[in-house]
Each structure stands twice: as structure tokens, then as C-alpha cells.
């Protein structure tokens, strides 16, 4: 008798595939936003808080703007802030975590003590304080998000580096005269990619919530550019009259965050050898 056929897809692969499909749909809507949006996000119509119709699929807001158009265009701003801020935090976290873990000693202690100060504050409260101090501009919001998430990413990099730098192949490279910088980049960093990918996906999900929450409180990019957080803030008082003005941006926030959470969990299943 022949052995039972092997599964073509593991759980992790299925989750990653679903996550990439969700991400592709999200990016397609965001990138093609100006083309597929029915109206300009600032264009008003005579009917305010109108229900769904052939002209306005999700209705209109309190001053007659098309909710669907603002939802599509608003996603561009929200995801732009999210991706750029996390990219900066990832770059800073990689450098700080790699230097801290590989060099060790006083350098490690100095870097980690500074990061501990930032890490000691709740992320959202720290973000509110920094944005309020610097001002609610696009650049300041991106800088704030990068600052508050850098310590988490640096810690994720530092942990594996402390272990990997003692492995035999690293010692062998050092014994044949390979420079420390080359060892760190070529022999240590590639082996800590797995936790970095997982944590980056989770950070993207968390950042979406942080960005929209700050915008909801009036600390996001100023009008007239729409974003999901400010749309929720504007629509909350009309929720009973026009529920779609709230349901639309709320569903978009959940979908975008869930996309990166599914990717993170799938990557963890695929890349974590111990879980197989």
C-alpha cells in the first residue's frame, strides 16, 4: 500500500496566501483610488446624509460628500503613513538591534537603556504626547509612529542576534579573517529575518490602529485630505441617521489590520521551524 498523499498546502502557506490576496485587493483599491473613485472626495452634492443609491453606493456624509470616494481616497493617506512610518522604524530597529546584540557590552547596555525609556510608555499615550508637542502634520505623524515602534523592532532583532553570533559558522568566519561588519551583515542578519518579517507584519497592523486613532482625536493630517480616522470622528454624531458613514471606515480599518495579522500568523507558521 502506498503512503497517504502529502498535503499540498500547510496551514501557514494557506494563511500567507489568503493574506497576500487580501493585501493585493487592498493595494489595488488604494493605488487605483483616483481612477475608481466615483467622485472627488471633496465634491459636495445637494443631499446630506443620504442613504445608498445608484449615484452614491454608500450614501453621503453630513455635507453631501460621497462616502465611498472618501473611503477609497482616505485609504491612500492612512496606508501611506503606515508603510512609511513602519519602514523608518524597521530600518532604525535593524541598525540598533543588530549593533546592540552583536557588539554587546556597554554599547548594548547604552542602546537598550535608551530604548527602555521609550518602551516604558504605552505606545498610544506616547504617540499622543509626541504629536501634540510637534504638531499634527503628516511628517510629524510619520516621525511619531516611527519613534514609538522602533524599540519593539530593535528588541526583536537583538534577541536572535545574541544567540546567532555564537554559532559555529560565525566563529569559523571570524577565524579565517572575515571582518566583523561583514560577519554581521552576511552571516548573522540573514538568520534573524524570520522574526523580523513576523514582527513587521504585526507592527503594520498595530500602526493602522494607531494612525486612525490619532486622526480620530484630531491629531492626524489636517483637512481637506480624508483619512479613515477623521471620517469616523466626523460621522460618529450621525451614526443613527446614516450608519454607513461609520460602518464604511470602520470596516476598512478592520480589513486592513486583519490583512497584516493574517500575514503575520501565516509567516510565523511557515518560518518557525520549531512549530512544524
Please explain how this structure is put together.
With 276 residues, the chain is an all-alpha fold. It has a single domain (62-275), classed as Orthogonal Bundle (MetI-like fold). 70% of the residues lie in helices and 0% in strands. The chain has helices at residues 11-31, 33-36, 67-103, 105-119, 123-134, 138-164, 168-175, 180-188, 193-216, 228-235, 244-271. It is elongated. The model is unreliable at 1-5 (pLDDT under 50).
The secondary-structure element order is HHHHHHHHHHH
Share of helical residues: 55-70%
CATH-derived topology: MetI-like fold
The named CATH superfamily: MetI-like
In CATH, the architecture is: Orthogonal Bundle
Poorly predicted spans = 1-5
**CATH class group:** Mainly Alpha
Distance between the termini: 26 Å
Determine the mean pLDDT.
86
Q: Give the radius of gyration.
A: 23 Å
List keywords for this structure.
elongated, 11 helices, MetI-like fold, 276 residues, single chain
Brief characterization of the structure:
This protein has one domain (62-275): MetI-like fold (Orthogonal Bundle). The protein has eleven helices and no strands.
